[in-house]
Amino acid sequence: MSAGVAPSRPPRPSAWQSELARGYRRPDELLAALGLDCSHLPAARAGHAAFPVRVPRGFVARMRHGDPDDPLLRQVLPVAAEQDDDPGFVQDPVGDLSAMSTPGVLHKYHGRALLVTTGACAINCRYCFRRHFPYGDAHAARHQWGPALAYLRGRPELTEIILSGGDPLTLPDHRLGTLAAELDATPHLRRLRIHSRLPIVLPERVDDAFLQWFTGGRLQPVMVLHANHASELDDSVAAACDRMRRAGVTLLNQAVLLRGINDDVASQEALSERLFAIGVLPYYLHQLDRVAGATHFLVAEDRARALAAALAERLPGYLVPQLTREDASAPAKTPLATPRHG
Ligand SMILES: *Cc1c(COP(=O)(O)O)cnc(C)c1O
Ligand code: SF4
């Protein structure tokens, strides 16, 4: 490269980008990889047409071969129940569209704002509210982050920025690094938080280039992971968490309470124990957002409360996630757990 010429992008994709590109994107290849017969195919195809199947191979490798009820598979394989209609399950259950003042900026809570950085994800979770979200214009990466940054700079009451999506870590490091540098230079900010499922479903993403922009600056780095079941947390995920921890990242996890997947005390206890073993504290356990197509994942609120109470009787307090619900106009997540001793 000659002097004065701007550095070009790396000529080859990084390892995680190749792994991302290799993910399964068709129901038939997912079923074949797990040795499942094609009786599941018609329902899977119908769901796929509405919200495509997408799952990294490394995540599929943690599923039980030949088991259609595997708790990881059920998060990603469309089933017939997705076609069930329920007027209580809507397109935008958390009111995100009306809360977006600047494209890509959600500033609903005191002191922190959330950037919808991109609509893309490495995995398509069937219970996700994102399945209907019109991301076309509503993300912050457009125009070199300009409007989003202008908004954040003009709000001195903000101390923390949350990179969310979609999944922010599907974006390349050169774009995220540019954003991180701008945030670093914004004096009122103290923390940079990322909400991502990539370190779980594609742990290759936690590489040197990522750690450099995430942990190399002034802002305290916080990573909120998203794992729902202990089986998601294999040795490759443990290694990714270890790298982040050694680089000074505070690691937390949010999970979604999902019927037939993690709605029993044993599953939740195993999840908390495994998270702590790999250096992650449980943070939130979210009651499902009532999004169209996800009725079959709902756990009734009284059952959810009973589960949280039972969990609190079995684990130290720091391993009990906060059971919460998201209400469109509330100033914070709404806690659902009732006091144990009352
Ligand atoms: C969930 C959420 C946050 C983060 O809430 P914490 O309680 O700080 O984890 C921030 N902004 C929006 C819009 C959210 O939905
Ligand atoms: S935003 Fe999170 S829950 Fe939704 S599809 Fe992406 S990874 Fe899954």
Structure characteristics:
342 residues, TIM Barrel, 2 domains, 9-stranded mixed β-sheet, 12 helices, 9 strands, 14% strand, globular, binds pyridoxal-5'-phosphate, binds iron/sulfur cluster, 4 iron, 4 sulfur cluster binding
Blueprint of the fold:
Elements: H1 15-21, H2 27-33, H3 41-50, H4 57-60, H5 96-99, E1 105-109, E2 112-116, H6 146-153, E3 160-164, H7 173-184, E4 191-196, H8 198-201, H9 208-215, E5 220-226, H10 235-246, E6 250-256, H11 265-277, E7 281-286, H12 301-312, E8 322-325, E9 334-335
Parallel strand pairs: 2-3, 3-4, 4-5, 5-6, 6-7, 7-8
Antiparallel strand pairs: 1-2, 8-9
Q: What this model shows, in words?
A:
- By secondary structure, this protein is an alpha/beta fold.
- It has 2 domains: 15-83, no CATH class; 97-335, Aldolase class I (TIM Barrel), CATH 3.20.20.
- Helix content is 30%, strand content 14%.
- The protein has helices spanning 15-21, 27-33, 41-50, 57-60, 96-99, 146-153, 173-184, 198-201, 208-215, 235-246, 265-277, 301-312; strands spanning 105-109, 112-116, 160-164, 191-196, 220-226, 250-256, 281-286, 322-325, 334-335.
- The chain has a 9-stranded mixed sheet with strand order 1-2-3-4-5-6-7-8-9.
- It is globular and about 55 Å long.
- The structure holds pyridoxal-5'-phosphate (PLP) and iron/sulfur cluster (SF4).
- The modification N6-(pyridoxal phosphate)lysine is found at residue 333.
- Its cofactor is pyridoxal 5'-phosphate; [4Fe-4S] cluster.
- This is L-lysine 2,3-aminomutase.
